[in-house]
Design goal:
This protein has two helices and six strands. The chain is α/β, with parallel strands linked by helices. It has a single domain, classed as STAS domain (Transcription Regulator spoIIAA, 2-Layer Sandwich). It is globular, with a radius of gyration of 14 Å.
Length: about 100
Amino acid sequence: MSTMNKPTDEELTPDSAMDEDDGLKIVLPKIFRDKRWAEKWGKLQTEIDEFQGRVVFDFTACRWIDPLPLMSVLLEIAQVQYKGQKVVVRLPKPDKKWLFVV
């Protein structure tokens, strides 16, 4: 994958899909609310469904996601896997204050 400049929080939207050298990268916004999901997700979902190859879902900047957008992203990840494509999910590092020892 190519290295790309990380967009600012203002630029992070679900429609910031970027073709990478060997795949499609979906960068989720810092705060992914229902309204933004309703406005943007359908178009992006069509782009993902038509894409053949590796798909990267990048949650590293995401700090909050409402339940409907989360369910849609998880279902899209499952759909891409079902089609036999490789999926990569990038998650943020956990905050130390939220680490629990069980």
